[in-house]
Amino acid sequence: MEGAAHQFCTFTLAGHLFGIDVREVQEVVVPQALARVPLAPRTVRGLINLRGQIVIAIDLRACLSLPERSADELPINLVVRSDHGAISFLIDEIGDVVEVDRRQFEATPDTVRSAVKRVLRGVCKLEGRLLLVLDKEQALASCTSADHSRGARPDAREPAVPLVAAGEPR
Q1: What is the pLDDT along the chain (170 residues), one digit of tens a residue?
Q2: What is the rounded CA–CA span in Å between residue 136 and residue 134?
Q3: Is residue 167 part of a domain?
Q4: Does some domain include residue 166?
Q5: Structure-derived torsion over alpha carbons of residues 23, 24, 30, 34, reported in degrees to the nearest 10
Q6: Distance (Å, rounded) from C-alpha 116 to C-alpha 163?
Q7: In which domain, by residue range, is 107 found?
Q8: Is 48 among the domain residues?
Q9: What angle do CA 30, 82, 163 make, to 5 degrees?
Q10: Which of 57, 65, 150, 169 lies 20 to 30 A from 35 at CA?
């Protein structure tokens, strides 16, 4: 984290607060029709047409082994810029842009599950909540890896697994 303060675009996934560097965000798009990609990892939900540009849509819930959304919950497209072009991360809800003093930034605690920890740059303690700062490139690499093949899909009926161990701020 360079400088005195850093801005993050916040969003939620299964009730957890995440943030991504605001400079990496291209735009936020309402739910779009997805074109399925055969034989893609289970985290790749499909492709969207963004004003003529074909953009891959990656489900962060699936990537982080969170429970699937119910059929009536439509994901929002958080379109980010990457070395591979525009990528859409499917999220639950968009939040605000928050400015965080670099002194609030901390390493990811050991209580965070390893599947989540590997895609985080760190955490920031906010008023009563823990902001999980997403590393876009690590998330992209992890979410499109062979570990997320179609056959490895967890059962949607499994109980929700918390990202942070009990007793930690959320």
Answers
A1: 455 788 999 999 999 999 999 999 999 999 989 999 998 888 999 999 999 999 999 999 999 989 999 889 999 999 999 888 899 999 999 999 999 988 888 998 888 888 888 899 999 988 888 999 999 989 988 887 755 444 444 333 333 444 554 455 54
A2: 6
A3: no
A4: no
A5: 170
A6: 7
A7: 5-151
A8: yes
A9: 70
A10: 65
One-letter amino acid for residue 110 of the chain = D
At 122, the amino acid letter reads G
Collapse the DSSP code of 102 into the 3-class scheme (helix H, G, I; strand E, B; otherwise coil) and give the result: helix
12: β partners: 17, 93
Quick one: how far is CA 52 from the chain centroid? 24
Residue 164 exposed, middle or buried by CB count within 10 Å (0-12, 13-18, 19+): middle
Residue 23, both tokens: 């400079």
Contact 88, 70 (CB under 8 A): no
| Token pair 């990892």 in the structure block, residue | 41
Beta bridge mates, 88? 57, 79
